[in-house]
Amino acid sequence: MSASEALGNRTARTTIAPALAPALTIQLSEAVMPDRSTIPERPSSSTPEFESRFPRRLLFAGAAAGLAGTAVVASASPAEAAPTTTAWLLGGNTGVTTTGTNFLGPTNAGAPLIFKTKADAASSLSEKMRLTPVGRLGLGVTNPTARFDTTSSGTAIQGKSTSSNSSGRGVSGSSVNGYGVEGLSNKYIGVFGQGPSAGVWGDSGLYGVVGQANTYGGRFSGGSIGSYNEGEGYGVYGTGGTTGVGVYGQGTTGVSGYCSNTSGNAISGSGGVYGVYGANASTAGVRGDSNYVGVWGQGYNYGVYGVATATAGTSFGVYGHSPNGYAVYAAGDAIVTGTLSKSAGSFKIDHPLDPDNKWLSHSFVESPDMMNVYNGNVTTDAGGTATVDLPSYFGALNRDFRYQLTVIGDFAQAVVSKEVENNSFAIRTDKPKVKVSWQVTGIRQDAYAAEHPIVVETPKSKDDAGTRLFVPKGSGAKAAQTAPPAPSAVTLTGPPAAAAKLLSPAAN
Length: 508
Prior knowledge:
- There is one protein chain.
- By secondary structure, the protein is mainly beta.
- Among the domains are: 2-80, no CATH class; 113-149, no CATH class; 371-451, no CATH class.
- The chain has helices at 49-53, 394-397, 447-451, 497-503; strands spanning 2-7, 11-15, 24-27, 31-32, 38-39, 66-69, 71-74, 113-117, 126-131, 137-139, 148-150, 346-350, 359-363, 371-379, 385-389, 398-408, 414-418, 424-429, 435-444, 467-468, 478-479.
- The strands form eight sheets. A four-stranded mixed beta sheet has the order 8-9-10-11, with no helix packed on it.
- Strand 17 (414-418) and strand 18 form a beta hairpin.
- It is rod-shaped and about 135 Å long.
- The two termini are 68 Å apart.
- 6% of the residues are buried.
């Protein structure tokens, strides 16, 4: 060290050589600081002012470090010695730079800035944080692959906002073209959200929340709600793989949809096979509740398609129930490939004499067997004979023929002179030129009728015994249970309270 110019009669300016700076003990009777203030020899407080204004360990290097005082004594105290470990990798720094350009870190190319700590005296130093030359910060990561990269066996990143309103963000992410926030889990949940109103909230020009996983994509524990405020779009949109599902729900209500627009759709689905698919082990795979249409189906081939796979008991592919209206209404032709069982039947048309104000109904003609009816009129020739030709399929379709003949316009006798053979039969009258009205019936003998004959009388099963399909008023009889009880009705006048608050513009 060397002394420089005298400062009055009390002090001298001393320049400290860089090589000695890390191992110095500085003793002062009175020091003059760069701002021209002084540090007295005997401070009034218990802590010397010099130690309170500077750390105990000082690094003086270069011409910029100077003190004015009465004495500077070199010391080799271990507490003040230069560091011998790599806790601070400052090999690139040759000294503290000039004011305005000071920095902490290496200047040699390719060297990272590494921070190490030790838990206690018995443990060794271990790396805790690393800043790479390309500006990537790693916590617990020696090779960070992102601008900020951290790993932990517990919670890797935690953010908390103490804002008293909804404008605060515990964690906020934004991106110009990619993902604002992305979560990835190899086994459980990529992104987990929990809150009194919305666990996860997404707001975007395209998709609010997008979830993708190898097993379940966009899975929510608890409940989820989607909202889209533009003219077109999806509140909740899901896509699945070849054997996966687009939207999967599990709970008391797996998936629920609500739409406040009278012309909108609460739940809409489209797909290569199933637009909406629901599976349930107990009650209903898909359920719809509405003040108008509970479940609406529209398709190129099938609007609604139902299959019941039970192999025992009574099952229903499509079941409808309405105590005061139509359980099933078909606006068009209807095809039944099996046996139709009913309590009554009729046709209902516009009344031909007053179609604007009346209906006209007729009951079906019933029979204990599968009877077909054929009829017509024929006039016998000069010899009093006539042949009636029947359809070409008559003999193949029918058996057990029955005949009825009625003479029209004359007192004459008419008989069936020859029964049906080769799809025709003959009539003879005792007078020539007699008009005869005829009717022939036959019992079906086609393959379906042969395997599914109408059994006229059958005993009721044990479950049906003591019940009736129709209960007359005042009879006190018990109604038969024709189908499993329908799920309890749900009245939806709007979304749940929490969801309504979430969807209101004021909440956003």
